[in-house]
Each structure stands twice: as C-alpha cells, then as structure tokens.
C-alpha cells in the first residue's frame, strides 16, 4: 500500500468473516474460501456470492489478488492485528468519546472473564505501567 493512499475502509461483518478465513488459512482461492465458509454455516453460500464478495473486497483494497497456478489467489491487504486495532480505535472514538476506560469497563462487563484472561489483562497493565 503506498503512503499516499488512505487505509482500506473498515470491513463489513460479511467481509470480516471472509477476512478471518484468509487470516487463518493464508492466501487462498475462491474455492478454498467458499469451502471454509460453508464448513461453518447451516445455510451455505453460493460460490458466486463468495466470488463477488472477494471482487468487491479487492476493489475496496481489503484484499489483494494475485495470479496463481490454481487461479486467482486472495490474501488480506492488512494483518489481523492492524485491522483489530483500527476497529477498536474507531469503536472507542465513536461510542466512548475516545475513553479507553469506558471501552474496557463495558467490554469486561459484557461476559464472564476467565482466570487466564484476567492474568493476561493484569500482565498487560503491569507492562504498560513499567
């Protein structure tokens, strides 16, 4: 991605589902994405639907497409952690007026937090303080 281009837009929920497949699998053909998505769904998607999503996502610069031996190969243009950080930053700004405190309080209050998660959060806080 060149420095003069703005970052790709925030993915929709459906696009994010496809991005997760690509982050997990790595570079993949439409068929591979189609099969991975449908292995987790009660209502299967049509191959052409997955193809169209990937075409739109290419236009939006969410994924890049390359020619491969097996056809077009798609991969995310942005790593998962960078996408997550951008979406959390956007959520924090739009919903919590930029308050990390409010974001964390609301995130921790929505479901039971496991002991492992609590330890990881404590370690992160300790690391941030030092």
Summarize the SSE layout with pairings.
Elements lengths: L12 H13 L4 H9 L8 H13 L3 E6 L2 E6 L3 H17 L3 H9 L6 H15 L1
Antiparallel strand pairs: 1-2
Helix pairs in contact: 2-3
What are the salient characteristics of this protein?
about 130 residues; mainly alpha; 6 helices; 2 strands
Biggest sheet character: 2 strands, antiparallel
CATH top level of the largest domain is Mainly Alpha
CATH architecture of the largest domain: Orthogonal Bundle
Q: Report strand %.
A: 5-15%
Spell the H/E element sequence: HHHEEHHH
CATH topology of the largest domain: Arc Repressor Mutant, subunit A
Mean pLDDT figure: 92
CATH homologous superfamily of the largest domain? Winged helix-like DNA-binding domain superfamily/Winged helix DNA-binding domain
End-to-end separation: 34 Å
> What's the helical proportion of residues?
55-70%
Number of strands: 2
Assembly state: single chain
Rg, Å, rounded: 18 Å
Looking at the structure, what is the overall shape?
elongated
The largest sheet has its strands arranged as 1-2
Number of helices: 6
State the secondary-structure class.
Answer: mainly alpha
Identify low-pLDDT runs.
none
Number of domains: 2
